[in-house]
Design goal:
- With 258 residues, the protein is an alpha/beta fold.
- The protein contains nine helices and nine strands.
- It binds adenosine-5'-triphosphate, magnesium ion and zinc ion (ZN).
- Magnesium ion binds next to helix 3.
Length: 258
């Protein structure tokens, strides 16, 4: 990218403003914009979510979704004076959890907050694990420390990983660290939890003859201790049961192409 010299400040980063007959210097917008872009890059939001924002999120005609949007806009406005400090998005697949988590992160970055970082849960665990492998090129503890120290952490798709003692210990220590320090953590998960009103009964496909089974729930996938802390450190955002937007969009497109 060629360095274009800013027309307002000529590249100095300061602009002169006149007020009440006095002149003073103020930070030029180009500096603020560049800073915002740098913060956004450092947040490492994956490309397929990079455009997700409040502006392109539809309420889908749902009062419940409007209510969620109102809550989130309040959260962003009050941040960092929010109690609890984090958000936990739960709900079915395709209901917009990741979209909204990214929208919140981006809004906070626009407001000037530093240290935002997006982590996919599965990817985080893999990176932490490969830190133990001398051949991986990953420096030990790097991803782990990033997740601990991020000023604002988005942890996407929590629980989407095979549970082992190691996984449970690792997620518990990340959550506990952030819990103790009251660090804002924004989590999404589609793992059901009976305590947010989810049914744990898996319905077999009709006619399959299969028996009802119990779904894996959050306590099973991340352990009781991590879950307990999450519930205290996050405001729970239960997504309304309005169906998978990915599917809905496909169906509408197909109908309108007739
Ligand atoms: N209300 C909405 N308005 C506009 N786009 C939406 C809305 N809900 C979802 N989407 C879009 O649908 C896709 C799926 O949404 P998203 O990834 O946020 O779902 P999710 O709840 O995180 O699902 P999963 O549990 O599978 O991760 C994305 O492309 C997202 O931008
Ligand atoms: Mg998601
Ligand atoms: Zn400028």
């Amino acid at each position: 990218m060629a360095d274009e010299v800013c027309a307002v400040c000529g590249g100095s980063g300061w602009k002169i403003i006149e007020k009440d007959g006095l002149s003073g210097a103020q930070r030029c917008e180009c500096v603020l914009k560049e800073r915002g872009q740098a913060l956004l890059r450092r947040a490492r939001i994956p490309t397929n979510y990079a455009n997700d924002s409040f502006e392109n999120f539809s309420n889908r005609g749902s009062d419940d979704l409007n209510h969620v949007l109102l809550t989130l806009s309040g959260y962003c406005k009050e941040f960092p004076n929010v109690d609890p400090p984090g958000l936990l998005f739960t709900g079915e697949t395709g209901t917009g959890k990741t979209h909204l988590a990214v929208a919140v992160l981006k809004r906070l970055i626009e407001h000037g907050f530093e240290g935002g970082l997006f982590f996919d849960y599965q990817n985080l665990l893999e990176r932490i694990r490969s830190g133990y492998d001398p051949l991986s090129g990953e420096s030990p503890r790097e991803a782990y420390e990033e997740a601990l120290e991020a000023k604002i952490l988005v942890l996407d798709d929590l629980g989407a990983h095979r549970v082992t003692d190691w996984v449970e210990d690792t997620v518990t220590s990340v959550i506990t660290y952030r819990y103790n320090a009251r660090m804002p953590t924004i989590v999404t998960t589609n793992v059901p939890d009976a305590d947010v009103g989810d049914s744990l009964i898996e319905r077999p496909a009709s006619g399959s003859g299969a028996h009802h089974r119990l779904k894996r729930s959050l306590p099973e996938m991340i352990g009781l201790r991590a879950r307990s802390r999450l519930f205290e450190m996050c405001r729970i955002i239960r997504m309304p049961r309005i169906g998978d937007y990915r599917v809905e969009k496909k169906v509408i497109r197909r109908e309108s192409s007739h």
